[in-house]
Amino acid sequence: MKITILGAGNVATHMAAALFSAGHIIVQVYSRTPQNARLLAKQVQAEAIGNLNDVSTSTDMYLISVKDDVIEEIVAALAHHQKLIVHTSGATTLQILTTYIQQAGVFYPLQTFSKSKAIDFSQVPMCVEGANEEITALLQQLAQSITQNVYLVSSEQRKILHLSAVFACNFPNYLYYIAQQLLAQQQLSFDLLRPLILETAEKVQQQFPADVQTGPAVRKDEKTMDAHIALLNAQPDVQHLYQLLSQAIIKMGEHKHLVS
């Protein structure tokens, strides 16, 4: 398949590389930052462009992988070419595309991406949605060429999926940051926590979170929680977050006890 990539950020970089490795032809890479376009284009043997007026029509699909608030601007500029247009956003509906063109779809990889870290794309869940059955089938086939995990996910489902991913990935990472700052106060290395973080992540690969919850809150260990809260007196925002999360864990434990 001939594909033009609109974007050169984290998702676009990994997506372009995966598609290229699977044998698809990357025709062009567009980015408002010419250097980024050139770097990615070189990796996938494509032409780098920095102006939407230079987008080629000798392509089967335009794959938009940019910040959510730029998607509509790009699809509006490309719709007159009457080519299949697809975006990779988890939080943006299909309708933002179909407002301009009926040949549209969503090709959403559920993973956290960084340019500096390699990803085994064959394990990445790909969530696809098409404006019609033909496009849906095409996107399924495309997804199957780069991953073993392909799911049909509607725009409404994808909103909740993306929200769930924020809770499962973005928020925990911020909590890791808080933990790192607390350790630094006592000249302790974050390396001390890495095995704990890994073990916690591995547990939920086989069991549900409520079944593997540990710590003072689930035990209702008031003495320990009070001691922790006192240690955070100088950091009221973190202290409030500790209290909020502890109360939520207590409620989760009580609910689990009631339904078990």
From TrEMBL:
Transmembrane segments: none
Positions of the Pyrroline-5-carboxylate reductase catalytic N-terminal domain: 2-87
InterPro entries: 6-PGluconate_DH-like_C_sf, DUF2520, NAD(P)-bd_dom_sf, P5C_Rdtase_cat_N, TM1727-like_C_sf
DUF2520 domain location: 124-249
Pfam name, any one: DUF2520
SUPFAM superfamilies linked to this entry: 6-phosphogluconate dehydrogenase C-terminal domain-like (SSF48179), NAD(P)-binding Rossmann-fold domains (SSF51735)
Record-linked PANTHER family: CONSERVED HYPOTHETICAL ALANINE AND LEUCINE RICH PROTEIN
Protein name (database record): DUF2520 domain-containing protein
Organism encoding this protein: Mucilaginibacter robiniae
